[in-house]
Amino acid sequence: MTFPQLKGEQIVNWSLIFSVLLACAIIALGGVLSQFEIIPHPEDGFVYEWQLAEPMAWGQLSAWLGFAIHQLLIWGTIAYAQNRYSKGDYASALRPVNRWAIGINLLFIVLHYLQTMVFYDGIAQDLPSWTAQFAVALMLIVILGMENQRRGLFFGRKVRFRRAFTDGLRRYHGYFFSFAVIYTFWFHPMIPTWGHLIGFIHVVLVMTQGSLMFLRAHLNTRWMFLLEILVLPHAFQIALNQGNDIWPMFFFGFAAIFLITQMHGLGLKRWARQAFYGSFLLLVLYVYLALREPYQANEIIRIPLIEYVVLFIMYGIYLAGAWISSRLRSLSAGEAGGAT
User: Fold this and answer.
1) If phi over 0 gives left and psi between -120 and 50 gives alpha, with beta otherwise, what is residue 76?
2) How confident is the model over 143-164, as pLDDT tens digits?
3) pLDDT tens digits, one per residue of 50-63
């Protein structure tokens, strides 16, 4: 049986349409899900409120099995692709492994939709909400490190990370990114709040990116930027939903990362960059002079500070590991030389 020669760019376009259709299908679930009794709205913002008041064993088992099987199958496609193709072997048309990855993701998206309809609960019933947030945040931090050689880290300036460090991020990022996105996908039930809808659109697009391994579309910079920047409206909407007045930290924090790092990989003209800087400054002045107190402006730097510091901590851990490995090899070589 022959398949049409679909290109990666076509899959990107179809994934954008599919993600919006999925959001519409989730909205249609609203009436069905109203029959479930969930926990009361918690005071603690770290308690995930979209979980059943009385969990069902079959519901939890179905979510965990869905997550585990989905994850293992996608890891299998990554391992197969890395063993078969090299770093410079990027094609335009889909290969069989890309079709398998897309099919697996489609299958488990449908299964999670049905699982939510029948059981409601995702794996959030057994885990704290910060774990899903941490997984996505770490994925974004790894992207900062991977893209340093192309767009720089601070206003277009590159940090001189060792090549082995960035090469390691590039080689193994697929395994971690797939874990982060599939974990997040099965963590949440498919419920029709704005925060969840944007989140599910985001994870579906990231799954698509993972399915396009070793295709030129996987390296499209504007497509990759979209996958990064979607965290801003998602985090902003989630913060608004929590109602604890922390939305400026997320909005301005991720907007600051855009201005410091992400914008400089888009090839924007100088006037466009200056327009973004000016718009950001005007919004900051309005919010922290008219809506909040000036001392609260420290919120702006919290998320960027965390992301950049964690990236350098990761690099420090790598350097420490490389030094220890080098010392062990030296000791082993010295012992071998002494024995002869």
Assistant:
1) alpha
2) 999 999 999 999 999 999 999 9
3) 888 888 899 899 99
What is the identity of the amino acid at 147?
Answer: E
The phi-psi region of residue 54 (left if phi > 0; otherwise alpha if psi is between -120 and 50; otherwise beta) is beta
pTM of the model: 0.90
Q: Which amino acid is at 335?
A: E
Q: What's the residue count for the chain?
A: 340
Q: Which two tokens stand for residue 15?
A: 């994934």
**How far, in Å, CA of 252 to CA of 55, rounded?**
37
CB 135 within 8 A of CB 250: no
Q: Three-class SS of residue 154?
A: strand
Residue with tokens 């090839």: 267
Cβ pair 70, 106 in contact under 8 A: no
Q: In whole angstroms, what is the distance from residue 259 CA to residue 271 CA? A: 14
Q: What is the DSSP letter of 153?
A: S
Q: What are 191's two structure tokens?
A: 């419920």
Distance of alpha carbon 336 from the chain centroid: 46
Task: Give the residue among 324, 17, 315 at the shortest CA–CA distance from 148.
Answer: 315
Strand, helix or coil for residue 45: coil
Dihedral angle of Cα 25, 15, 149, 305, to the nearest 10 degrees: -10
pLDDT in tens, 94-107: 999 999 999 999 99
The candidate with the shortest Cα–Cα distance to 66, out of 109, 98, 130, is 109
